[in-house]
């Protein structure tokens, strides 16, 4: 059976305005049913890329295809394929929630007989039933965000694009939104941008990091850790007089294990030692056994897991270095 | 254009819930009522040669220059300021449908408000018991002029709203553009410096766009196809420029 085509295909996308390159030669694809997190510092080109995907902004060059429709030449088909929640979630202040949903449903060409039940369904999913008759301008930030999300999923489009959907929400509301987005996995393709990196890590199948308009890293969070850091790190707390024994224990467990830093001994004689290895599997138990066999006093041993925040910072820093070093050498 | 009616009904609804609409309607009806009262006082004081319906449309320019910007200043400027134009244009609607719906809603309200002043003449006819006060010729011509010129005036207001995201600026710009068209044409037409032979083509153009002259013709019952073409062409051009303006802003946003 032939492999289904990706829901989103972006190839060599460039967007410049006013002499500034906002998006520079970006290429990526998103599989059907996949949830992808779009990360990048402010001004990296996330919102511009999302706007191009929706057909709202034209690209300077490159191709974007959504559900096999070209954004540049088939904008009407694209608009029927996407649900979009822009940054800051602009909503008409004077409308009631149910009126707004009805209006948007009609614009999205949902048949009248299906629209009522569908509105009830999305209001239920987004926990908006209590406020369905309220004026949007009087709603709290959390409710407004949920109205934006409800509107994006209203027509059950195959692709959902959300720019910072959890911004300004309290932890409880973030949890609701996270579960909501997770519930779309497999049914809809979702692209979300966010600055709340743990949210992205928990919700998304893959992460795409862009900086200065370029893709600087993409893959699963685990793959990115491997790609960016390339090693595992262990933190050991041991006494200060065990140098040869420690070195022998490390060599016995794995030849690539090496001490990268050591702190000064504390008042109780223990010091913190940082150990790295190229091995990805967990060596903690073997390391502990080897140390105890050599009568090394161990107070703590733990494997360090770089967070997505570490990956994000390292990837963006790497891209800054790549850009700035050639510029400096000229 | 399959979403035009959905957008139009939405825009009319939004106009009806907007306080600015009621401010504009109250000012307009109060002002026109005042004019009508003064006309009645003049006509009851001494005999007049011309129909009150002709005098009634003399001051059409004041509500046109004030009410039209009040009705249109918000339509596109506010959408851009709030960013709701982005969510609107990422649904299967076109910029043309959006602009036409906003134009249609503002024009409907403009025409309805003017139409409601027909009640003044009905009341006069009812209480005076004199059928001559309901002079059908000037009244029909006058309201036809209002209906046709209103298309162009409202389109200018929509265009003013399309070039800025600040509705106050849109209102002032619309007011200035309408005043330039209506009063500027009248002032230039009345001046002598265009009488020189070399400037005759310019005088012809000014005469062609002389809105007060059009009103006089309409209220006398003269329906000149050139006047109709002037307003219809102006309306189409203003709407095309509005659509281009919205799309140009998107390209550079």
Question: How would you describe what is shown here?
Answer:
- The complex is a heterodimer of chains A (about 325) and B (about 250).
- Chain A is α/β, with parallel strands linked by helices.
- Chain A is built from 11 helices and 14 strands.
- Chain B has one domain (about 5-250).
- Chain B contains 13 helices and no strands.
- The longest helix of chain B has 27 residues, at about 20-45.
- The radius of gyration of chain B is 20 Å and the shape is globular.
- Chains A and B meet through helix 2 and helix 3 of A and helix 1 and helix 6 of B.
Structure described in brief:
The complex is a heterodimer of chains A (330) and B (253). Chain A is of the alpha/beta class and 330 residues long.
Features of the shown structure:
heterodimer, A: 330 residues, alpha/beta, Rossmann fold, Alpha-Beta Plaits, 2 domains, six-stranded mixed beta sheet, four-stranded antiparallel beta sheet, 38% helix
Topology, element by element:
The complex is a heterodimer of chains A (330) and B (253).
Chain A: E1 8-17, E2 20-30, E3 35-39, H1 46-54, E4 61-66, E5 69-70, H2 75-81, E6 82-85, H3 97-107, H4 112-125, H5 141-153, E7 159-163, H6 171-183, E8 189-193, H7 197-203, E9 206-211, E10 214-219, H8 221-229, E11 232-239, H9 243-253, E12 258-262, E13 270-277, H10 284-293, E14 298-304, H11 308-329
Parallel strand pairs in A: 3-8, 3-9, 6-7, 7-8
Antiparallel strand pairs in A: 1-2, 1-4, 4-5, 9-10, 11-13, 11-14, 12-13
Chain B: H1 4-16, H2 19-45, H3 52-56, H4 61-72, H5 77-82, H6 84-89, H7 95-116, H8 118-128, H9 136-162, H10 167-190, H11 200-208, H12 211-219, H13 225-251
Helix pairs in contact in B: 1-7, 2-4, 4-7, 4-9, 4-10, 7-9, 7-13, 9-10, 9-12, 9-13
């Amino acid at each position: 059976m032939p492999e289904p085509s990706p829901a989103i295909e972006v190839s060599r996308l460039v967007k410049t305005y006013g002499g500034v390159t906002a998006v520079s030669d970006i290429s990526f694809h998103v599989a059907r049913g996949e949830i992808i997190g779009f990360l990048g510092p402010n001004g990296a080109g996330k919102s511009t890329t999302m706007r191009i995907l929706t057909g709202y902004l034209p690209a300077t060059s490159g191709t974007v295809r959504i559900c096999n429709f070209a954004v540049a030449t088939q904008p009407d088909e694209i608009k029927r394929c996407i649900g979009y929640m822009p940054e800051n979630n602009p909503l008409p202040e004077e409308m009631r929630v149910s009126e707004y949903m009805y209006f948007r449903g009609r614009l999205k060409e949902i048949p009248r007989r299906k629209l009522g039940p569908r509105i009830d369904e999305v209001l239920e999913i987004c926990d908006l039933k209590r406020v369905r008759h309220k004026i949007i301008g009087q709603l709290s930030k959390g409710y407004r965000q949920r109205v934006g999300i409800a509107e994006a999923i209203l027509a059950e489009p195959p692709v959902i694009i959300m720019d910072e959907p959890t911004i300004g929400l309290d932890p409880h509301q973030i949890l609701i939104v996270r579960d909501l987005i997770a519930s779309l996995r497999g049914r809809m393709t979702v692209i979300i941008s966010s600055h709340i990196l743990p949210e992205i890590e928990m919700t998304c199948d893959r992460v795409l990091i862009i900086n200065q308009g370029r893709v600087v890293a993409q893959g699963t969070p685990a793959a990115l850790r491997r790609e960016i850091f390339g090693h595992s790190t262990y933190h050991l707390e041991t006494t200060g007089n065990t140098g040869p024994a420690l070195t022998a224990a490390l060599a016995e467990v794995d030849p690539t294990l090496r001490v990268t830093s050591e702190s000064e001994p504390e008042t109780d004689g223990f010091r913190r030692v940082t150990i790295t290895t190229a091995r990805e599997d967990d060596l903690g138990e073997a390391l502990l056994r080897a140390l105890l066999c050599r009568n090394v006093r161990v107070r703590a041993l733990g494997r360090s897991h770089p967070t997505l925040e570490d990956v994000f910072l390292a990837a963006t820093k790497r891209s800054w270095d790549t850009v700035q070093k050639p510029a400096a050498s000229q | 254009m399959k979403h035009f009616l959905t957008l139009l009904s939405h825009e009319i609804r939004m106009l009806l819930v907007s306080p600015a609409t009621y401010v504009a309607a109250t000012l307009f009806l109060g002002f026109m009522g005042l004019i009508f009262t003064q006309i009645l006082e003049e006509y009851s004081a001494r005999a007049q040669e011309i129909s009150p319906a002709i005098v009634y449309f003399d001051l059409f320019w004041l509500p046109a220059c004030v009410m039209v910007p009040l009705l249109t200043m918000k339509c596109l400027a506010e959408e851009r300021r709030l960013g709701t134009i982005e969510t609107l244009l990422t649904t299967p609607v076109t910029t043309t449908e959006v602009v036409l719906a906003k134009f249609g809603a503002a024009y409907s309200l403009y025409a309805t408000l003017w139409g409601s002043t027909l009640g003044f003449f009905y009341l006069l006819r009812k209480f005076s018991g004199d059928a001559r006060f309901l002079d059908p010729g000037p009244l029909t011509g006058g309201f036809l002029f209002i209906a046709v010129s209103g298309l162009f005036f409202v389109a200018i207001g929509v265009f003013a709203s399309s070039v800025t995201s600040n509705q106050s600026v849109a209102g002032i710009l619309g007011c200035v553009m309408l005043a330039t068209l209506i009063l500027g044409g009248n002032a230039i037409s009345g001046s002598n410096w265009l009488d020189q032979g070399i400037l005759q083509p310019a005088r012809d153009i000014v005469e062609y766009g002389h809105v007060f002259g059009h009103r006089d013709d309409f209220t006398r019952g003269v329906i000149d196809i050139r006047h109709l073409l002037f307003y219809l062409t102006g309306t189409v051009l203003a709407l095309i420029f509005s659509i281009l303006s919205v799309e140009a802003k998107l390209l550079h946003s």
